[in-house]
Write a structure and sequence with these properties.
The complex is a heterodimer of chains A (303) and B (467). With 303 residues, chain A is mostly helical. Chain A is 68% helix and 7% strand. In chain B, helix 4 runs antiparallel to helix 5. Chain B is rod-shaped, with a radius of gyration of 38 Å. Classes of the chains: A mainly alpha (303), B alpha+beta (467).
Chain lengths: 303, 467
C-alpha cells in the first residue's frame, strides 16, 4: 500500500478521537461514580434501576404510613388504658357505696364524683389524634359521644374502620367505631355510659334501698365494661405486632434493594481506574508515535 | 538530423519537458492538503524517431498529457458509504437528543414525579381530611401533569429542529446541484478540446461526495463528460448543465415534506423515496422514533388519567361531592392538567369511598384514596401486563437502546468511510516523499539537459573556430 502523509494524519486523528472519547467516558464514570450516566450506557440496566428507585420511594412511603399507624395505635392504647382505669374507679365506687345505710349526703357527693368520672370517660372517648376524633368511625370531625343534661349518651359517629396501607395492596384496619368500645350493647356487650348513668341514678335515688339495688347491679356490669375496653385494647396488640413486623421487613428489604441498585448503577471504581490507566497508556503512546511519524519527511534528510 | 542543431533542439525539448515535470510536481506539493485533490502525473514518451542511413534515431523526449491518478470505482464506493454515514450520523444525533428528554439518571424525571404523585395519595390515606395532605397532593399532581407536558413539548421541539435541519439541507442540496451543473459545463467545454479537465473533475467528485452525505444519489457520466445525478426514485437532480430544484412543503401533520420540482415546476413529494443520507436519518428519527415516543407518552398519560378519573369520580369529596374528574384537558400528553375546580377547592378530592346521607359526611374515610394509591401497583398498561411505572421505565430503556444501536451503526460506518477514504488516498493522495524524489529526479534531468545544450554550444564554437 502506498502511504501518504494524509493517511497517517487522518488515521491518527481518528484513533486519537476514539481514545479521547473512551477516556472521557471512563473519566465520567469515575467523576459521577456511576456506570450508567444515560440510558444508552446500559438500556436494560437503566430500566431496572428505575424499577428499584420506584420500589425504594414506595417503601419509604409504606414505612411512613406504618409509623403513623403505630403512633395512632399507641395513642389509642393509652387512651383506652386511662378509660379502663376510670371505669374501674367507678366500679370500686359502686361497690363501696352499695350499702343502703349510707346517708343521703354521702351518696350525693358520690353521685357528683361519678358524674365527674362519666365526663372523664366521655372525654377519653372523644379523644382527638392529629386533629381528628379517633373513635367516631369515618366521621372524624364529629365528637363521637355527647350527653344530655340527664346523662343520656348518644353516639354520633359511624361504623367506619381506619385503614392503613402497609404494603402493595395490603391494608391493616384499626377499629374506630366508638360503640364497639364504649357502647357495645348491640353485640351483647356493655353500654358503659348507660351503666354510669344507672350508677348516678342509683346514688341519687331518694329511696336508699331501691338505690342500693341499682348500685349493686351496676358494679358487676361495670366490671364487664372494663373487660370490654381491655379486650379492644388487646385487639390492638396483633395489629401493632403486624405493623412492627412489616416495618422490620421493609427496613430489611431496603438495603437489599439499594445493594442491587448500586451493583447495577454504580461504577466499579477500581475497575474504572485500571481501565483509565490502560486508556491513558494507549492515548499517550498514540500521541508519542504520531509525533515521531508525522514530523519527518525526505526533506529533513536532503543536504 | 544528427547534426549539432539536432542536439541543441533535443536539449531544449528536454529542458522544457523536465520543467513541465517540475511544474506538475510543484502543483502536487501545493495541493497536498486540498480536499478531494487527486495527484497528477506528467506522461512523457520518447519523441518520434527519424529514419537515417543507420536506421531510426530517437529525437528526444516529448510530454503527452497531464494525467490524474484516480480509481473511478472507488469514487462510487466512497459516495455510497458516505450516504450511509450521513444517515446514521443524523439519526444518532437526533435520537441522542430524544434520549436527553428521558434522562432519568439524575433522578428528576417522570419516574420520580410519578412516585411522588402516588406517595401523595398514600399520605392522604393517613389523614384523609387533612388540608395540608390535600394541597400537597394537588401540587404533586400538577408537577406530574407539567412533567408530562414538558417531555412532550421537548420531543416536539426536536421534531421542529429536525424540520429546520431538513430545510437547511434542501437548500444545501440545491446549492451543490447548481455547483455541479456549473462544473459539468466547464468540464464539457474543456474536454471538447481533447484535454482532461483534471482539477474540475476533482472538484466535481468532491461536490458529489458532499451531496451523498445529505441524500441518496445515483450518478453516471455520459460521453460528453457531464454527470447526471438523480435522487429518490429516479428524480433527476442534475442533467448536464441543468440543475433541478428540491423544495420543502408543510404536510398535514405540520411537518416538512421534501419535494422535487419537475420541469414545469410542479412539486412531487419524494419524502418516502429518500433512502439514505442525512435527510433519511432525520426523517426516520422524526417520523418513526420520536413519533413512537410521543405516542407512548400519550398512551401512558391517557391510561393514567382514565384510571385515576374513573376511581375519583366514583368517590366522595370532603364536601360530599361526587362525579368529579381528577385530571382534565387531555388531547395529547401535553394537554393533561389537574381539574381546575380541584385546584381551587382541595375539598373536592374524593378520598372517601362512601357517603352516608343519614349521618352526613365521612371525612375519615380513606377508602377511595387507598384505591387510587393502589393503582401504582395495578397492571394497567400493555393489555394489563405492566404497571404505569414499568411502562415508563421501558420507554426510557427503549430510548437508550435506540441510541446504543444507532451509535454502533454510526461507529461502524465511520470506520468504513475512513478505510475507503484511506484507500482512495493511497491511490490518489499526494506523498511529499514521493514528490520530493520526483523533484530531484526532474531537477537532475534538467541539469543534464542544460549540460547537453552547453555541449552543443561548445561544439558550435569548435566548428566556427575552424573557419
Amino acid at each position: 500500500m502506498r502511504v501518504t502523509q494524509n493517511i497517517t494524519t487522518s488515521n491518527f486523528i481518528s484513533y486519537i478521537n476514539q481514545h479521547a472519547e473512551n477516556l472521557l467516558k471512563t473519566q465520567q464514570q469515575i467523576a459521577s461514580q456511576k456506570r450508567i450516566n444515560k440510558s444508552s450506557d446500559d438500556p436494560i440496566g437503566m430500566g431496572q434501576v428505575l424499577g428499584y428507585r420506584t420500589n425504594l420511594a414506595v417503601t419509604d412511603q409504606y414505612q411512613e404510613n406504618i409509623e403513623q399507624g403505630m403512633t395512632r395505635l399507641e395513642f389509642n392504647e393509652l387512651t383506652l388504658d386511662l378509660s379502663s382505669d376510670l371505669v374501674n374507679t367507678t366500679r370500686k365506687l359502686a361497690e363501696n357505696y352499695s350499702g343502703s345505710t349510707l346517708s343521703a349526703a354521702t351518696r350525693q357527693s358520690a353521685a357528683l364524683q361519678v358524674k365527674d368520672l362519666y365526663d372523664q370517660v366521655m372525654q377519653m372517648a372523644n379523644s382527638k389524634f392529629n386533629g381528628n376524633y379517633t373513635f367516631s368511625g369515618h366521621a372524624t370531625n364529629t365528637a363521637p359521644f355527647s350527653r344530655d343534661a340527664d346523662f343520656n349518651a348518644t353516639y354520633n359517629g359511624d361504623d367506619g374502620e381506619f385503614r392503613i396501607m402497609v404494603s402493595d395492596n395490603v391494608e391493616v384496619s384499626i377499629v374506630a367505631d366508638g360503640r364497639k368500645i364504649f357502647q357495645d350493647a348491640a353485640h351483647g356487650g356493655v353500654n358503659i355510659f348507660d351503666e354510669l348513668k344507672n350508677l348516678i341514678d342509683g346514688l341519687e335515688n331518694p329511696d336508699p334501698v331501691a338505690g342500693s339495688v341499682q348500685i349493686e347491679a351496676t358494679a358487676k356490669v361495670l366490671q364487664g365494661g372494663r373487660d370490654q375496653i381491655n379486650s379492644r385494647r388487646s385487639e390492638y396488640a396483633p395489629v401493632l405486632y403486624r405493623l412492627q413486623a412489616t416495618d422490620e421487613y421493609l427496613a430489611n428489604l431496603r438495603p437489599k434493594v439499594e445493594d442491587a441498585m448500586a451493583t447495577l448503577e454504580q461504577a466499579d471504581i477500581t475497575k474504572a481506574v485500571v481501565e483509565l490507566q490502560n486508556l491513558e497508556l494507549a492515548y499517550e503512546t498514540t500521541l508519542a508515535t504520531a509525533a515521531r511519524i508525522i514530523q519527518p519527511s525526505l526533506l529533513d534528510f536532503l543536504r | 538530423m544528427m547534426d549539432i542543431f539536432g542536439v541543441l533542439n533535443m536539449g531544449s525539448k528536454a529542458l522544457m519537458v523536465q520543467q513541465k515535470g517540475i511544474y506538475v510536481t510543484g502543483n502536487n506539493i501545493a495541493n497536498v492538503n486540498t480536499p478531494g485533490y487527486s495527484r497528477q502525473r506528467l506522461n512523457i514518451s520518447s519523441d518520434l524517431p527519424i529514419n537515417t542511413g543507420i536506421g531510426p534515431v530517437g529525437s528526444g523526449v516529448t510530454a503527452n498529457e497531464i494525467e490524474r491518478v484516480y480509481d473511478r470505482f472507488l469514487g462510487v464506493q466512497i459516495n455510497n458509504e458516505t450516504q450511509s454515514l450521513g444517515q446514521w450520523e443524523a439519526y444518532k444525533d437526533s435520537l441522542e437528543r430524544a434520549e436527553m428528554v428521558f434522562n432519568e439518571s439524575g433522578g428528576y424525571g417522570l419516574n420520580q414525579v410519578m412516585s411522588e404523585f402516588w406517595n401523595a395519595w398514600q399520605d392522604l390515606t393517613n389523614k384523609p381530611s387533612g388540608s395540608v395532605e390535600r394541597t400537597v397532593l394537588v401540587a404533586k399532581s400538577e408537577m406530574l401533569a407539567a412533567t408530562f407536558s414538558q417531555n412532550y413539548e421537548d420531543l416536539q421541539q426536536i421534531q421542529r429542529d429536525i424540520d429546520s435541519n431538513i430545510e437547511g439541507a434542501v437548500e444545501e442540496i440545491n446549492r451543490l446541484s447548481e455547483n455541479m451543473a456549473d462544473l459539468n459545463q466547464k468540464i464539457i467545454q474543456m474536454e471538447a478540446g481533447g484535454h482532461a479537465a483534471n482539477d474540475y473533475r476533482d472538484q466535481r467528485d468532491l461536490v458529489l461526495k458532499e451531496l451523498s452525505e445529505l441524500i441518496d444519489i445515483d450518478s453516471f457520466e455520459d460521453a460528453t463528460g457531464g454527470v447526471t445525478v438523480s435522487v429518490g426514485s429516479g428524480q433527476v437532480r442534475v442533467e448536464g448543465t441543468q440543475a433541478y430544484k428540491l423544495s420543502t412543503q408543510t404536510n398535514t401533520s405540520g411537518r416538512q415534506d421534501v419535494t422535487w420540482l419537475d420541469s414545469s415546476n410542479n412539486p412531487v413529494i419524494i419524502t418516502d423515496n429518500i433512502s439514505k443520507g442525512k435527510l433519511k436519518g432525520w426523517l426516520d428519527a422524526r417520523d418513526v422514533d420520536i413519533d413512537n415516543s410521543l405516542d407512548n407518552l400519550d398512551i401512558l398519560a391517557q391510561r393514567l388519567m382514565e384510571e385515576v378519573n374513573g376511581l375519583h369520580a366514583s368517590g366522595r369529596g370532603l364536601d360530599g361531592s361526587t362525579g368529579n374528574v381528577f385530571f382534565t384537558g387531555f388531547t395529547t400528553a401535553a394537554g393533561i392538567q389537574v381539574n381546575p375546580e380541584i385546584v381551587n377547592d382541595v375539598n373536592l378530592i374524593a378520598a372517601a369511598e362512601d357517603f352516608d346521607p343519614a349521618n352526613g359526611l365521612k371525612p375519615g374515610d380513606n377508602g377511595n384514596a387507598i384505591a387510587i394509591a393502589n393503582l401504582q401497583q395495578a397492571q394497567t398498561m400493555n393489555g394489563n401486563t405492566a404497571t404505569f411505572g414499568a411502562y415508563y421505565d421501558s420507554l426510557v430503556s427503549d430510548a437508550g437502546l435506540a441510541v446504543q444501536q444507532a451509535t454502533s451503526y454510526y461507529n461502524h460506518q465511520s470506520q468504513m468511510v475512513l478505510h475507503v477514504e484511506n484507500y482512495r488516498e493511497s491511490i490518489s493522495g499526494v506523498s511529499i516523499d514521493e514528490e520530493t524524489v520526483n523533484l530531484i529526479k526532474y531537477q537532475n534531468a534538467y541539469q543534464a539537459a542544460a549540460k547537453l545544450i552547453n555541449t552543443a554550444d561548445e561544439m558550435m564554437e569548435t566548428v566556427l573556430a575552424m573557419i
